[in-house]
Amino acid sequence: MKLIKYISLLIILLATSLVSAQIKFEAKVSKNRLGVNERLRIDFEMNQDGDNFNPPSFSDFTIIGGPNQSVSNSWINGVRSYHKTYSYFLAPKKQGNFTISQATINIDGETYKTTPIKVEVTSAIEIPKDPDDPEYLANETIHLVAEVSKTNPYLNEAITVVYKLYVSPTTGVDNWREIDSPRYNDFWSQNIDTQGLKVQMGTYNGEEYRYLVLRKTVLYPQKTGKLDIEPLSLDIAVQVPTNRRNIFGGQMMARVNKTVSAGNKTINVRPLPETGKPIDFTGAVGNFNFKVSTTKTQLDASESLQATVEVTGNGNLKLFNVPKLTLPSSLEVYEPEHNENVKTDLAGMQGSIADTYTIVPQYKGKYPIPSISFSYFDPKTETYKTLNSNEIVIDVLEGPTSGSVANSNSGNTKQQVVLNKDQFAFIKTKTNFSSTTSSYFFKTPLFWSALLLPFLAIPLAIVIRRKKADRDADVYGNRIRMADKLAKKYLSNAKKALGKKEEFYIAMEKALHHYLKAKLHIETSDLSKDKINKLLLERGVEAETMTDFNNIMLNCDLARYTPITAVTMQEDYEKAAKTISLIDKQAR
């Protein structure tokens, strides 16, 4: 009997041990039904520590907090109690019935999964205005505002958007992170450096607030009609006062997470008026000056001078072309060099753009550079204005003379016929006879070469055939060579498409992709920015070169939606060729 008693006791102890050692991994939510303006907390709990925790995707929610991790480890009556939790705070994106999928974790070499949880999101509910509720206090004391300088600009007129975060003096902010960044579709945009965050004092709805300027952006609308500016959204950790006091009598603070949004802004872009629009108008909007200048007005033939067509002022300087210079056909003129000296601040683009022509006269005489015009639209006066350059005369002092009318500005100038001193050739009456009988071919060096050449070509043909067989068997290498050939093909296509923005940037983007496939031995599915940077870094490519490559890829994406000049396309093409060359040199 005693033996049976001991065996029973042992079985009970083993069963208790097995039950206590059972691994648990489960998910719990704060509520299964909530309003679209409420937040959901979900906890993933386990009673043993594990590795490789993978949360669900939360595709129907926005993560506004977490993961927060808490661990509890205690011993009671010799029994260890362990508890670990991963917590997330979620905001629903829309109404509906959603399922939060499984989370996974590895514990003792086994993979454990949570049970999917169903959550119903209803329409927004009224949140009680409880002055003691930290959530309510956070809603009332912190605001994100987007200030737009003008809501009805003209096409290509500059406007600014300034994002300010207003915080009540009684409220504190620990930190924040961007949830949604604004995208400026149909705008040319540039962010302005805020030069550090500085707390300033101001008013919001008539009350005193502290505020930070988070971001400044200059926009130039590229389409007419109603255009939307998507909102900036932040997740902020807020410290709000409570009615509780600490042991010293000081007011205690409560920490809550709050999502704030600047709201969607709509801009009504007006088209430029058709009345009074000059024929030579190319889209310049702002306030400009215009001039044509030369480095010299007197020189000798075969010397060179530079003529510069320059536009200065405030407006959309990077979004239009400088007028072309018209010159007499007797002057040799090279393609202009485009220069930009433009800075952008809250007033828009300011500075100058210029095309510089190199001119080489060939003949002595006087050559006029005629006046050319430049037209722009002034949004302040809402009128078109036309500026004209002064006529400049180039005086070529020394050099050969030409029969062309030097002072003419027409391209139909006529030149004198220059007579050759040997214009009359006499008929030769004496001839030199030579023998037409050739020497014998037999036993000549050419005979022996032709006889032995087939025998020498046999081993060479065998070697070539083996090399070709090895090359055909190298499937992986052939794929790399094919990608390299395609990269060269598309880069040549990009060069042919210079001047055609859409075709050029599509061809250049394909060329860069095929080059990466050939160089890094990767497939199209692996062409992600992070994977590319990682592989280039492992190959020893310098960070500056990788930055240049990423900038080129970014330009290919952005250039399709912004005005681009032929000069900019040429610069992007040369930069792409240079960067590919650098990667070839640096990669191991």
Automatic annotation (TrEMBL):
Transmembrane region(s): 446-464
Keyword Ribonucleoprotein: no
Domain of life: Bacteria
Keyword field: Membrane, Signal, Transmembrane, Transmembrane helix
Lipid biosynthesis listed as a keyword: no
Residue ranges of coiled coil: none
One Pfam assignment: BatD
Leader sequence segment: 1-21
Protein's recorded name: BatD protein
Source species: Confluentibacter flavum
